[in-house]
C-alpha cells in the first residue's frame, strides 16, 4: 500500500516537474535562446574582434529577454486599418487576439474607450464581462514581438467567429427570426455601452462577430466617443457613409447616441436583406430621399416586422427615433407571439 502511494507520488512529482520544465522553457524560450546565443557568438566574434562589446551585450540582452507572446496566425480581414493576429500569451496560458495599429491616435482612442468599458463593467455588475463585448486584456505601445519599435497594440480574448457581413453574404440575407435574434443581442450590447455614456459611432455588419453558438460580440471602438463629461452633442463626423445618420452625412453637430440608433436601423436592414436601402447618403440619390422622407417602398419579400423597426429607428428627426428599450420590447413581443 505504502509502496503504491510512493509510486503514485513519484509519478505525480515527475509529471509536475515535466510540466514545470516545459512551461519555463516555453516562457523563457531558453532552449532556443541559448542555442542562438552560441551561434551568434561563434559566428561573429572571431571574425570581428573590434565589435563593440556594449553593442553586443545589448543585442544579447534583447535576445535574452523572455518572450511573452507567440505568434499563431494572421487573422486577415478586408478593409480596416488594423492588423489582427492570433497569439499565445505564455504568462496567462491563453490564446488571444492582438490588434496592431498604424495610427497612434486610433490606438489611444480605442484603448481609452476599452478602459472605460472595463471600469464600467467592474463598477456596474462586478462581473468579468458583458456577454456581447469582448474581454479586453491590455495594451502595449511597443511591438509585442520585438519590443523596440513603436507599434501599439491591444489584446482581446480570441473569439472563434465570422463577422456578420460575411455571414449575411453567405446566406444572402438572414431570415426574420434569425435577424431579430441577433439584433436583440446587438441592442443589449449597445444599450450597455450607452449606459456608460459611450457611443459606438461605427456600427456596421463588419464590426459584429458571430460564432457557431449564435453568440454576438460587438467590436471596434476606434471611432467610439466618451460623452461622460455631460456633453450633449459631438462634432466628429467620421464613420461609414452608408450607416451614418443624415445629421452626420450633412456634417451637423449631433447627439451620437441618436446617431447610433440610425446605424442600428441600417444594420438590421442589411442583415435581413443583404442589401442597403440606398446607394449613397446624398440628395442626388432618389432612394435616399425616399428613405429619409419615410416613404420608402421596402422590397416585396422584406419582413413587415423588420420594416417597422427599421422605419422607427431611421427617422430623419433624431428625437423621434425609437429608443433601444422600445426596440427590444417590439422584438420581445414578436417572440412572445410566435
Ligand atoms: N477578438 C477577436 N477574435 C476573432 N477575430 C477578431 C477579433 N477581433 C477582431 N477580429 C477580426 O478582425 C477584424 C477586424 O477587427 P476590427 O474591426 O477591430 O479592426 P479594423 O476594422 O481594422 O479596425 P479599424 O477600423 O479601427 O482600423 C474583424 O472583423 C474580425 O474578423
Ligand atoms: Mg472594423
Topology:
Elements: H1 2-28, H2 30-44, H3 53-64, E1 69-74, E2 83-89, E3 94-100, H4 104-125, E4 136-140, E5 153-157, E6 162-163, H5 164-171, H6 176-195, E7 198-199, E8 208-210, E9 216-218, E10 225-226, H7 246-249, H8 256-273, H9 286-293, H10 304-313, H11 324-337
Antiparallel strand pairs: 1-2, 2-3, 3-5, 4-5, 6-8, 7-10, 8-9
This protein binds adenosine-5'-triphosphate (ATP) and magnesium ion (MG).
Question: Could you list some keywords that capture this structure?
Answer:
338 residues; alpha+beta; Phosphorylase Kinase, domain 1; 2 domains; five-stranded antiparallel sheet; three-stranded antiparallel sheet; globular; disordered N terminus; binds adenosine-5'-triphosphate; binds magnesium ion
Any idea of the CATH topology of the largest domain?
Answer: Transferase(Phosphotransferase), domain 1
Gap between N and C termini:
64 Å
Bound molecules: adenosine-5'-triphosphate, magnesium ion
Q: Order the strands across the largest sheet as they lie in space.
A: 1-2-3-5-4
Amount of beta strand: 5-15%
- For the record, the CATH class of the largest domain is Mainly Alpha
| Count of individual helical segments | 11
Unreliable sequence segments: 1-6, 8-33, 42-48
Helix content: 40-55%
- When the domains are counted, the total is 2
- SSE class: alpha+beta
What string, H for helix and E for strand, traces the elements in order? HHHEEEHEEEHHEEEEHHHHH
Overall pLDDT confidence: 83
Estimated radius of gyration:
26 Å
Major beta-sheet overview: 5 strands, antiparallel
